[in-house]
Design goal:
Layout (H helix, E strand, L loop, with lengths): L7 E5 L4 H13 L2 E6 L5 H8 L2 E4 L5 H14 L5 E4 L10 H25 L1 H11 L2 E6 L3 H4 L5 H21 L3 E8 L10 H8 L11 H12 L7 E4 L7
Parallel strand pairs: 1-2, 1-4, 2-3, 4-5, 5-6, 6-7
Length: 242
């Protein structure tokens, strides 16, 4: 028996790693899932077979963002949730790149979520009118608490997204809850060396690689809550105490 339709959830950057795990889980639970992806991956065919709608969007191009917003508005009358997972990662290399890097980080981590939240406010409210509440979830980062001398622009942009969580929680209440999830290490990359893994694990009190299910659990908790808004759930294994 197919699970009942629980509403439409948009996940930006949903074709890889944590976003992919969230997309699969929510789809299996009975949500209608729409993901965005920048570059095709091997997971797209699998997601399509599951019934996930996959939309290729390059958020660095404003015209593509506008087309995506128009597509969603023409396709859906309401949205259960938006999960802002699309991300970029780079460090400061040469002075010639600093300005471009800062603009790129701020665009993907702050401007795009800002514009999408504003554009889809009415769709979220439409869902909440008949289902009590809708949700926006921002994926931030542990680095917001500590800063980073190697990834200054990245850290600043994630801090901006954290602040957007507070502002949109105020703006969209009481119909729409807005929260953030701030992970530290949840999953290693395939190319990570054993030396790097050992060093990274020691940075948290728990000293484990918990995997993508930890994020899925946090998303499910937020979606099931009727009262949590304007908060950041830290998934860092106690790293702030080291």
């Amino acid at each position: 028996m197919m699970p009942k339709h629980l509403g439409t959830v948009i996940i930006t950057g949903g074709a890889k790693r944590l976003g992919l795990a969230a997309a699969k889980s929510l789809c299996k639970q009975g949500f209608e899932v729409v993901i965005t992806f920048r570059n095709p991956t091997a997971s797209i065919d699998e997601l399509l077979q599951m019934g996930v709608r996959c939309v290729q969007v390059d958020f660095t191009e404003s015209n593509e963002l506008n087309k995506f917003i128009a597509l969603v508005k023409s396709s859906y009358l309401s949205l259960r949730a938006i999960i802002h997972n699309a991300s970029d990662w780079d460090c400061e290399n040469t002075p010639e790149e600093f300005s471009e890097l800062f603009d790129r980080m701020m665009n993907i981590h702050a401007k795009v979520p800002y514009l999408i939240n504003l554009a889809f406010e009415s769709l979220l409210v439409n869902f909440a009118r008949t289902h009590q509440v809708a949700d926006v979830i921002h994926m931030t980062d542990f680095v917001v608490e500590r800063g980073s001398d190697k990834h200054i622009a990245y850290a600043a942009s994630k801090a901006a997204l954290t602040n957007l969580t507070l502002s949109f929680a105020k703006k969209l209440a009481p119909k729409v809850k807005v929260n953030a999830i701030a992970p530290a290490l949840l999953m290693f990359n395939e190319h990570d060396s054993e030396v790097y893994k050992a060093k990274a694990l020691k940075k948290s009190l728990m000293q484990i690689e918990p995997g993508s299910q930890e994020l899925v659990n946090a998303i499910n908790f937020i979606l099931s809550s009727q009262y949590l808004t304007g908060r950041t759930i830290a998934l860092d294994g106690g790293r702030q105490l080291k």
